[in-house]
Amino acid sequence: MKEWISHSPEETEAIGEALGKTLSGGEVIAYRGELGMGKTCFTRGLAKGLGFDGQVTSPTFALINEYRGGRLPLFHFDMYRISNWEELYTTGFFEYREEGGVIAVEWSENIEAALPEETIVVSFFRIDDMTRKITIDYPEGEKTA
C-alpha cells in the first residue's frame, strides 16, 4: 500500500495522474471515501495520466462518464444508487470491463461482490477541510505511482 497527504485539489489530481501513467488497461479502481473527499479531482488526474485532456466531471447523475481519446479509455462509474445485481447489470459495468480500458468506481462498496479480485483500492480520508490522506492498495504488491 502507498500513502500520500494531499493539501489541495491540485495535489490530489497529481496523485491520480501518477497512478494513471502506470496503468496498462483492464484495471478496475475502487474508490472508498465520503462525499466531497476529492474523488472527482483524483479522476481528473487519472484521466490526464491516461492521456485524456478534456473535461472530467462527476458521474453522479449520469451513472457513468466515458473519457476516450487518450492512450486508454476511462470509464468513471457512480454506484451510489445501485443496490442489487439487476441494477448493476443495467449500468453496463460488465460490458465495459471487456473493453480493456480503465474503470474507476465511486461508491464501490455498493458493488463489492462484483469487483474483481485484482481491484486497485483508492481510499480517501479527511484530515481537515483541505487536507486528505489518500492510500492506494494494489492487489499484487507495490507499484510505482
Written account of the structure:
- The chain has one domain (2-132): Rossmann fold (3-Layer(aba) Sandwich), CATH 3.40.50.
- The chain starts with a strand and ends in an 8-residue tail after the last strand.
- α1 packs across α2.
- It has helices at residues 9-22, 39-49, 85-90, 93-97; strands spanning 2-6, 28-32, 64-67, 74-78, 102-106, 120-126, 132-137.
- It is 25% helix and 26% strand.
- The radius of gyration is 14 Å and the shape is globular.
- It has four helices and seven strands; from the N terminus they run βαβαββααβββ.
- By secondary structure, the protein is α/β, with parallel strands linked by helices.
- A seven-stranded mixed β-sheet has the order 1-7-6-2-5-4-3.
Number of helices: 4
**Strand order within the widest beta sheet:** 1-7-6-2-5-4-3
CATH topology: Rossmann fold
What structural category do the secondary elements indicate?
A: alpha/beta
Describe the structure concisely for a colleague:
By secondary structure, the protein is an alpha/beta fold.
List key phrases describing it.
alpha/beta; Rossmann fold; 25% helix; 145 residues; seven-stranded mixed β-sheet
Set out the fold topology.
Elements: E1 2-6, H1 9-22, E2 28-32, H2 39-49, E3 64-67, E4 74-78, H3 85-90, H4 93-97, E5 102-106, E6 120-126, E7 132-137
Parallel strand pairs: 2-5, 2-6, 4-5
Antiparallel strand pairs: 1-7, 3-4, 6-7
Helix pairs in contact: 1-2
